[in-house]
Amino acid sequence: MKTLLLISAREWKLLNRNILQLCIIVLFAAAALYAIHYGNAVIDRQQETVQYIRQQNAQDQQRLINGLGADTTTPAGLAAWEKAAYPSKVRFFLNYYAVNEPAPFARLSIGQRDVNAYYLQLNAQNLYLQLFRSEIANPRKLLAGNFDLSFVIIYLLPLLIIAFTYNLLSDEQERGTLPLLRMQPVPVQQIILCKLLFWLGITIALLFIISCIAFVWSGMPVTAAGSMIWWLLVSGSYAGCWFALLLLINAFHRSSAVNALWSLGAWLLFLVVVPALLNLAFSDERQADPTKLTDYIRRQQGLGESKQEKVEVLERFYKRYPQYRNNDTAAAIRFLEFQAYSAYVTLTDAAAKPGVDAYYRKVWRRQRQMAAFNLINPAVNTQHLMNTLGHTGIEDAFAFRASISAFHERLCHFCFEPLFAGRMMTKADFNNLPVFRQLQPSTAIGTLLRGLGWLWLLTIIAAVAGWRRLRNSFSTPTVNG
């Protein structure tokens, strides 16, 4: 401990005299502060958009409901009344917005919220024609595409660590002080380790300060305290992994220039080359191409014109939903045309569901295949952990899609009850409008622990390998003399 304190005091004095290192720290801090601002600005814009569309949607819904009391003696009043009174028209004109609300940590790790739709306009018509207006899962987009705080930590923090530690040993060699260090009673490898621990402490302190600023700036609620601890643990573990890699690189006793090249090569490998190769390897359009699926849905055979064809469609519908079969023949015939069309739309969605589910299974399987490789990549692994905390990963996009499907079913059944009962809509019906409920996957502790476990494993392997190599390199005693 005394050796660590002495070397830390020496390194601190050298840091205060090194203008370049101080400038690098200031630039990193400035980049982090801008990233915090950027992440907040993106989510603020999304929330403003959501607030606006909700206000407009509420006004449109109220305008539609007010049509029940419109003056039907005028053409405009009659049209407004028909929109609100006929269940078949309510299916088309009553619109909702399904919204994927941002979690608090989405401000720090935007993830795929800029790639996937975070809101979708819905009515009780064909689900999949509405759902595929925007592809929910776009595997061609990288998870880290924004200059948010997670981007700064994933991409810029390793460069900061490289700048400070690439020459821990080579600098002593090139300045000619290594022989003097070898004559000291403290082993050289212990001195190098103490220097590394000093910079690790500086980095962890910097991460802690920046993260605390981000928590306050982003208005994190007290209930997010657990996620804050996870964030600090993930970012600190990622930094520790890079320090272990730099210890291993320094242990090879190469020149500062070679160490710098190896360090930058590792950065390019983990953050550019490997993610790009995996993205190319698992982005085969034949595996999951929504275009053909969408074309299939659009080309579904239309509803027949004859009464017999419509009755046949209704019979198929009643087999799936026997609760809507109306024994009152007169009431059933009243809306036969509208009932048949609604039944046809519902059956079309049911016919398309297996293909849609198969498509999403392919997307999910591809994501799982990539995730298996990404666990051994500390950069992508950490990005996934931060997206997990921010609820901004592909898992959350799938949960949003499931929320949309569940809500669309409730919306359809809201219109089915009066339609197949053969009656008009009433104000009592509109008092029980379905409400969209977002299915939010919980922060999977298992996912976080598994990702952290791989980070720690890589850190331990690199640190042990580096330490053993350093110790073996300096195991030959020197003769004073």
Automatic annotation (TrEMBL):
Which branch of life, at top level?
Bacteria
**Which Pfam family, any one of them, does this sequence belong to?**
ABC2_membrane_4
- The residues that cross the membrane are 20-39, 149-169, 190-217, 229-249, 261-282, 448-467
InterPro entries linked: DUF3526 (IPR021913)
Does the keyword field hold Transmembrane helix? yes
Keywords (alphabetical) are: Membrane, Transmembrane, Transmembrane helix
> Would you tell me the protein name for this molecule?
ABC transporter permease
Instruction: Supply the source organism for this entry.
Output: Niastella populi
Upper taxonomic lineage: Bacteria, Pseudomonadati, Bacteroidota, Chitinophagia, Chitinophagales
